[in-house]
Amino acid sequence: MKAIRRLTVRPVLPDPLRPLSDLARNLRWSWHPETRDLFHSVDPECWTASGGDPVRLLGTVRPARLAELAEDRRFLRRLTAVADDLDHYMTGDRWYQAQSGRLPAAVAYFSPEFGITAALPQYSGGLGILAGDHLKAASDLGVPLVGVGLLYRHGYFRQSLSRDGWQQEHYPVLDPHELPLAPLKERDGTPAHVALALPGGRELRARVWLAQVGRVPLLLLDSDVEENDPGERGVTDRLYGGGSEHRLLQEMLLGIGGVRAVRTYCRITGHPAPEVFHTNEGHAGFLGLERIAELCDGGSDFGSALEAVRAGTVFTTHTPVPAGIDRFDRELVARHFGPDAELPRIEVERVLRLGMETYPGGEPNLFNMAVMGLRLAQRANGVSVLHGGVSRGMFAGLWPGFDADEVPITSVTNGVHAPTWVAPEVFRLGARQIGVQRAEDALAVGGSDRWDSVADIPDRDIWELRRTLRAQLVEEVRERLRASWRQRGAGTAELGWIDDALDPDVLTIGFARRVPSYKRLTLMLRDRERLTELLLHPERPIQIVVAGKAHPADDGGKRLVQELVRFADDARVRHRIVFLPDYGMAMAQKLYPGCDIWLNNPLRPLEACGTSGMKAALNGCLNLSVLDGWWDEWYQPDFGWAIPTADGAGTDPDRRDAIEADALYDLLEQRITPRFYERGASGLPDRWLEMVRRTLSLLGPKVLAGRMVREYVERLYTPAAEAHRAMDPDSARGLAEWKARVRAAWPGVSVDHVETSAATASAELGTTLALRVRVKLGDLAPEDVEVQAVSGRVDSEDRITDAARTPLKPVGGPDLEGRWAYEGPLALDRTGPFGYTVRVLPAHRLLASGVETGLVAVPSGDLVEAAGLLMR
């Protein structure tokens, strides 16, 4: 019988056990072993049944057991120690508090998904896991971050398989009262709400829930409230679900409603107001519009408000392909803004101009969320060095006249939160060498270039650890495999083979991620006979564990899953290759440590970063990957293997897959399996263990989320906070007026004459030439511009590479024709073909760079030819 109504019955804890409730509600337990061990000891069976979720545990443990624990002095001492540790963690000074300078009072971090723990399933893949790791690392460092997202009542889907291997989706309903959340309440005890205006006089209301992620509050907006009509109640139903209007409403609620939720939270709690707003991908871009509207309500004009908002905004793009960006029809966006809907104070055309693709190659009737994010942020970044370069090329149309390498998008390479992803056994081995506190600091804060203490761990200890982790993975796989086959309709009599699935002494390869086509889930199947030979090799076998979800609307991805599953179902190989459905954080935390090799074979350069290999590396797993994302940046032969790519422009996609699959098989046959199975004089795989050791000691410190967040603080948050403080109302108005004046006058700016002291087309290294330039500034003055010499080596098409930029100084006043003279030295500091040019850029103390306005004046073609700007 089905219940007609569902209630959440909360346990009443005896007074001595009250701290358990606080510990359960702070998600620090998800990365703090002592807290998890404490909850495990409350009731080991209930802990396992609850999936390691303290809130569910406390809701199911027997009252008699709680009464027993309330009298258990040993347990109470442990409880007091863990509660005191949390209090110290929450209130004590950490890395951020020890920094000098005027750091941001607070930073608001917006993301459409957050992967904090399996107990709070609000993530679909890498973007959400990265956002969760960002919050956890910020907490460990003491960065005053406020997270903002949506609470999806169905989360992302749960995945199972049909008998024939087709992906099936299930959407369990999540009750916020059964999650580690608390409603944000006004001071009178009523729930805090935010509201958005919708066309036709309707309203979208959302409740605000609070998840405490260590020191970081995470605000989650939930539209499933009684005040909403059924359509509005479903806005936050599913992550990345619904059609265009549904997604637009989600993103309006995240951005506009999210800012209102932050203001409400700060008003209620006294938390410092954020000086910096960080938009994690374009989904939250509307937050900039809400902040502009706030300033307009305070008396600013739109242009001034735009400059003030840009100064304090950071935008991170995670998408290396245009198809991955949310784009909406112009008319749909227009209908949701203006006098009859949201932000009525701002003209609809101003809203649209921020997101329209008004550049060569763009679709002029589409509103692009990433384009809006870039136009509303003075600072932007990609998530690896390679991805930063890809992003500069992808968005170069927003800065016409500039080479892609000057587009103002930098990069901060992602990292992973080591306390979350490092297996307890790995941590204990490290702590044995340097002590628990130093080990915790090394993983959470980082700061060193290498972990030299790894060199002191005996080979035998590392090898025994690796086998232990592999054996744990084998047990986990068998358990999940058995459950999956039962879901697919298999009877117990059919499943005896699972007892022999995988082997704790066989080289184990992991491949787990989302299943878009560019990640090439089935590249390993390209030559099935060759793969089968590798799996069944009599002396050097391999075994592969695969997991991943295809988007519910992606039938192509589902077909890839089915193809892999059908191969893994073959009785010849099913003990050596398995597909595990319902990939998520709980599975990942077992999978990364238990694998010897982490495989990644995307189409280069479509992997923006790809952090799963980082998590594997922190557990002593070696990477086998295409040189894409972070691996392109940090690959060394000590850390694993690079799969050669055939990514030339003329390569047929099918042929490319064939070439790269062959390269993968060759690496496995000729280099990887021999190294894993060969034994040295000690009876151990010495050369393999040396690679594990170097991965841990040299790569480990690089891949930390602590390193990543420190970079954000130093390179993006602090400069953004300084720019925000400098942009007082008068300064913002002055900058907006200056930009308008410069744009109007720019057609009158030109380079009129260039000459140097060079008499010939060749010169010796170290020579300094005198450069003299005459420019027309029209209605502008020298203080409005910077005249630069740009010089460097030139390629076969006379393009300057690795350019150096030298400001030239004005000499005297304008001549009779209104031209200004500029002079400066030109150092010939490189051998070989050398070239230079000159250009004029707008210059203002409040610009982040001269490229910011997208305006530039360069010599005409005739002038270049007459000046002879190349030296060979």
From TrEMBL:
Catalytic activity: [(1->4)-alpha-D-glucosyl](n) + phosphate = [(1->4)-alpha-D-glucosyl](n-1) + alpha-D-glucose 1-phosphate
Domain of life per record: Bacteria
Names of required cofactors: pyridoxal 5'-phosphate
EC number annotated for this UniProt entry: 2.4.1.1
Signal sequence region: none
Coiled coil: none
Keyword line: Allosteric enzyme, Carbohydrate metabolism, Glycosyltransferase, Pyridoxal phosphate, Transferase
Residue ranges annotated for the DUF3417 domain, each copy included: 13-120
Family in the record: Belongs to the glycogen phosphorylase family.
Free-text function comment from the UniProt entry: Phosphorylase is an important allosteric enzyme in carbohydrate metabolism. Enzymes from different sources differ in their regulatory mechanisms and in their natural substrates. However, all known phosphorylases share catalytic and structural properties.
Protein name per the record: glycogen phosphorylase
